[in-house]
Every structure is written in structure tokens, then in C-alpha cells.
Amino acid sequence: MPSYTPPLRDMQFVMHEVLKVTDDLKLCPQHADTDADTINAVLEEGGKFASEVAFPLNISGDEEGCTLDKTTHEVTAPKGFKEAYAQYVQGGWAALSCDPAYGGQGLPFVVNQCFYEMLNSANQAWTMYPGLSHGAYEALQAHGTDAQKALYLPKLTSGEWTGTMCLTEPHCGTDLGLLRTKAEPLADGSYAITGNKIFISAGEHDMAENIVHLVLARLPDAPVGSKGISLFAVPKFHVSADGTLGKRNGIYCGGLEHKMGIHGNATAQMVLEGAIGTLVGQPNKGLAAMFVMMNAARLGVGNQSLGLTEVAYQNALAYAKDRIQMRSLSGTKAKDKPADPIIVHPDVRKMLLTAKAYAEGGRALGIFCGVLLDKEHSHPDEKVRADSGEMLALLTPIVKAFLTDNGHISTNACMQVFGGHGFIKEWGMEQYVRDNRINMIYEGTNTIQSLDLLGRKVLGNNGATLKKFGRLVAALVEEEGVNEKMAEFITPIAILGDQVTKLTTELGFKGFQNADEVGAAAVDYLRVAGHLVFGYFWARMAQVALREIAAGNTDQFYLAKVQTARFYFAKLFPETATLMRTMRTGSKALMDTDAALA
Ligand SMILES: Cc1cc2nc3c(=O)[nH]c(=O)nc-3n(C[C@H](O)[C@H](O)[C@H](O)COP(=O)(O)OP(=O)(O)OC[C@H]3O[C@@H](n4cnc5c(N)ncnc54)[C@H](O)[C@@H]3O)c2cc1C
User: Fold this and answer.
1) Which of 132-141, 257-266, 336-345, 362-371 has the lowest mean pLDDT?
2) Active-site hit among 169, 443, 517, 548
3) Selection from 339, 521, 338 nearest residue 447 by Cα
4) What's the CA-to-centroid distance between 442 and ligand 1, angstroms?
5) Contact 511/382 with Cβ under 8 angstroms?
6) Measuring from atom 49 of ligand 1, which residue has the nearest CA?
7) pLDDT score at 481
């Protein structure tokens, strides 16, 4: 059976020692009083909820899965899920970073980011029920009418109701411009919505008293393609103006998917038969409104893999210290035992350190993005709000795709540490691999994320935002350029920064002549950009740790940080060289292959 200890020390290190998040938060009036002690106390309690309430349901939820009653269309979540959710609601966890105007606690998003990392480590499938509600909350807050906000936001804030996002249809997932679900206007200003949605996470369940579905559909005479999509709020139970629940609406679960992982989360086929909904935002501008939810969800999906990477690492580390097998190549280490613990073997260390480096790098990036979100929403200076939003938009596809790809690498490596036992269910490691796999697919596949990054966010604005990130790297290079102890961390990011600038210009030029060049390079480009970002945060973490060590601090935490940074730059970061080479081979080896793929 796996175990899980919330990584509070590392979160505190990143928040308070590296990024100094309260300096930024102090400038946001609504967070001015949120000090480090408050953040730490909330996360300590949050860690207890994750490890003591959600975590014990992870394996049982995977084994049991969800069940659908085909007559009533009711879905029952695995045993214990409902009770854990009631505890979550009662503890006020749903309200953590929601607006006090709707009953929220108004804490910074960055706190929620860390809380959700722990929930994801504990139980990704369970966490998706409350997790999606956050996105629905944000979309309604940004684009809802006053009446919709009054009706839905207090209930989503308290967690009494949950939310979903209903985009995908059987014939379209990536290309939402093809969607067919129809919305007919009714005399009272509402809409009757008819169609079929598939793969809807948390689409139906028994954990909350109502579910608010955010549904994409087409109005009559809507333009074809993505310019003709509108967004609707469709409750599972009708809601009267005073908030009381009425009869069931015409939206129900027609079937549950049987799938590779996240068994505890209901992946529902949703049938809409004249379901009554209200328009969210402007007609035909639904995709833009839904993007608020999708962006929140993309950051959330990266956080899912961060959580899985951390928990897989913790368990693999414990196993590698305990399992004895063969002797160390450089001589016996455990003389009192018939063999050495496998942690003495270089490749076992490589697997462990890979997961550790990706978890800690991902945590730093996730927390950085949490603060950007806080500044985007609450900073009094309009320019800071706009700059923060722009940087967050650049980093979102990197969080989504780089962290989930790293989660794939890491959970697999951690399972491998267990040898054959990793493949056996009892140890819980194969579940982390299976659960992580969906993170690379949903919320826009990682290929789509890479096209968003290279096509829209980088080439789309001539690299302007990327240059802003480059300036952060340059400032660190400038600050530490003459510090010999930092050279092993600073030189690689300085070189890669220059290489990425050159490469981006090259790709922009090639893409101008042939757009397939962008498609051929995008996935590799995102990985290179991911390493530039991780390299920057690893260098900053090493900087703080080295300063502590130089000041005489003997806490092994700092030495561990420097050693992990060294590993990261020696063994993981250099893959950028290969990726840049493969990118430069261009699209020909892919597109001139009709005979090969005939
Ligand atoms: C467990 C689970 C939960 C989900 N939860 C939700 C949910 O809550 N709400 C919701 O609406 N949807 C949900 N989805 C749907 C998910 O978001 C889609 O499956 C995903 O976006 C991909 O769409 P698709 O499956 O139709 O694949 P397709 O769009 O058919 O793509 C197939 C392949 O082609 C590639 N591809 C497509 N277009 C391009 C292109 N232009 N360039 C390069 N490659 C391309 C894709 O990357 C992919 O590899 C969920 C799916 C699963 C499996």
C-alpha cells in the first residue's frame, strides 16, 4: 500500500524563500493581510485533509469505480467519496480562494494551487469532482449575468453544487467548430438544448445536491465553425429564483465510459433532450467564455500530474531504501545484509531523481503561476494585471503539457523502481501510471498545447511574451554571472535562452513559407521551452540553497536542493540539444511519407 506525506517544507521553501510570494500578495489589497503563517497553517490543515480523508479512498475508488443505474440514470461514486466530499464542503475547502461576495474565504489562488497539488497526490479521481467546479465558478464569474452569478456562485463556492464542462461530442473533441448540439430560444429568454456530449468528467454523481453543466451549443442560424458556438448554464435540477431546487432538467447520463485510469471519476455520456439552460456571455462567443474555464482546467491538469509525480516519487524512494538486490558495483554498502538496497545502483538513483527534479521544478512553476493568477485578478495596477495575464497565457500550455509529459516519465520511472512489483496492483504504483495517462490527453491534447504555444503564444506575437520571460532569465544571469558556484546552473540557461531566440526566429521564417513546419516542430519546441522555464526555477532554487549553505545553515534540505539541481542540469536539461536537432530536420521526414503511410 502506498503512503503520502504532504510536501509542506518544499512548498514553504518555494513560496517564502525563493519566490517570496507574500511580497507580491501584499501589493494586492485583498491579500495584504495574508502572511506566511496564515498560508502555512491553511496548507498544513489542507495536507491533513488530503492525506487522511482523500488518500485512503484512492485505491478503493480505483477498484470499485462508478456505477450507473440505467433506469434512474443516477450515478453512484465509489464508497466513501460522498462522505469525503461532505467533509470537504463542511471544512470550507471549496470556498478557499472564492470571492467573499459569494461566501468565499478570499484566500490567494496560490494557496489553492498548493492545496490542490496535495489533493491530486492523494486521489486524482476524487479531486476532479470539486476541481471542475472551480473552472465553472470562474467562467460564470467572468461571463455570467448578475442573475446567474446570484443563483450559481454561492452554491459553487460552498461546494453544495458541483460544475462540469460539456464540450466534447462523439464526432468532435479537438475541433469544437464541428459541434452539433442545438439551443432553441424560448419565449421566456431561456433555451431548450438538445444533443449528445461524451467524456464529461464528473458529469453525473451522487456527491452533491445539484450539478451545473456549462454546455457548448449552437443557436439557430449560428455561423458554421467555432464562430457559431454559444455557452449555456444547464443545471441538473431546475433552480427557482430563490435558489430552491425543482424537478430534474432534461440532461442525464446515458452511459459511463470504461477506461484506463481515474476509475473513481464518472466519465459520462450526457444526453440533452430539450434541457433548459440560460446563455452565458454573448451569443456565438461561447468559446471565448469557455476559455476561462479551459485555462483554469489546463493549469489544473498540470497540477494533477505534479501531484502524481510527487506521490509516486515518495513511494519509490521508500521502496528503493528497503528493497535489497545485488551488490553495489563500487563495493558492498550494507555489510549486515545479504545484498545492498537498490538505491545504491546508479540507474535506480536516476529514476528517483528524475521524478524528484520534475516534481520540485513543477511545484516552483505551479506556484509562480498561482501568484500570476493572483496578480492578474487582484493587483491594483492595470499594467501589472495585464502583464501577469500575458505571462500566464504563455506558461499555461507549458504547465499543461510539460508537467503531464513529465508525470508520464516520472510515474513510469517510479513504477520501474519497484521492478515486477510495480506492475502488481497491490503496490499502487501502476495506478499512478494509468491515472496520469489521461492528463496528456484531455483539456486539449499535448500536441494541441504545443501548437497553442508555438503558433499563437510565441509566433503569434513575434515572440514578445517569450522575450519577457527571457528578461527574467537574463536578469538572473546578470545577477549570478560572476558567481563561480552558480556557473553550472547559470551557463546552461544563458546558452539555452540564446538558442531559443535563434530557433524561434528560424521557425517563424520556415513557418511563414510552410505552416507544416510549425506543426512538425511544436511538440519538441514546447519541451525545450519547458526546460528553459524549469532551468530558470531550478537555478533560482539552487541560488537560495547555496546562499543558505554559505551562511552556515546545515539543514540537509538545502544540500538536497543543490544536489537535485545538479542532477537536473546534468541529466535532464541536456535533452534540449537533441530536441533542437530534431526540430531543425523540419517537416519533410514527416510529410513526404505518403508511401510509408499508405
Ligand atoms: C477520461 C476523459 C475525461 C474527459 N473529460 C472531459 C470533460 O470533462 N469535458 C469535455 O468536454 N471533454 C472531456 N474529455 C474529452 C477530451 O478533452 C478529448 O478527448 C480531447 O480533447 C481530444 O479530443 P478527441 O478525443 O476527440 O480526439 P481528436 O480530436 O479526434 O484527436 C485525435 C488525435 O489527433 C490529434 N489532432 C487533432 N487535431 C490536430 C491538429 N490540428 N494538429 C495536430 N494533431 C491534431 C490529437 O492531438 C489526437 O492525438 C475527456 C476525455 C476523457 C478520455
Assistant:
1) 132-141
2) 443
3) 521
4) 6
5) no
6) 445
7) 87
Instruction: Specify the residue with its C-alpha closest to ligand 1, atom 14.
Output: 199
**Is the pLDDT at 458 greater than 90, yes or no?**
yes
Rounded to an integer, what distance in angstroms lies between the CA atom of residue 507 and that of residue 54?
A: 46
Q: What is the structure's pLDDT at 596? A: 98
pLDDT at 430 over 90: yes
What is the per-residue pLDDT for 291?
87
Above 90 in pLDDT, residue 292? Answer: no
d(CA 147, CA 250): 21
pLDDT in tens, 202-246: 999 999 999 999 999 999 999 999 999 999 999 999 999 888 999
- The distance in angstroms from the start CA to the end CA of the chain is 48
Can you tell me the distance from the alpha carbon of 407 to that of 308, in angstroms, rounded to the nearest whole number? 7
Ligand 1 pocket by C-beta < 6 Å: which residues?
165-168, 173-174, 199-201, 259, 267, 438, 441-445, 447-448, 519
Residue 281 CB-density burial (10 A; 0-12 exposed, 13-18 middle, 19+ buried): buried
Q: Which amino acid is at 361?
A: G
The pLDDT of residue 158 is 97
Q: Are 152 and 144 in contact (CB under 8 A)?
A: yes
CA angle 258, 259, 264 (to 5 degrees): 85
Task: State what percent of residues in the chain have pLDDT above 90.
Answer: 97
The H or E element containing residue 235 is strand 230-235
For the beta carbon of residue 477, count every other beta carbon within 10 angstroms.
18
Q: Give yes or no for a contact between 401 and 365, defined as CB atoms under 8 angstroms apart.
A: no
Residue 439 in grid coordinates: 492528463
CB atoms within 10 A of CB 330: 8
Rg, the chain, Cα only: 24
The residue nearest atom 4 of ligand 1, judged by CA position, is: 199
* Distance of alpha carbon 442 from the chain centroid: 11
Positive or negative, the CA dihedral 297, 301, 306, 308 is positive
pTM of the model: 0.98
pLDDT tens profile 334-358 = 999 999 999 999 999 999 999 999 9
Q: What one-letter code names the amino acid at 231?
A: L
Q: Is 443 a residue of the active site?
A: yes
Question: Alpha-carbon distance 273 to 270, whole Å?
Answer: 10
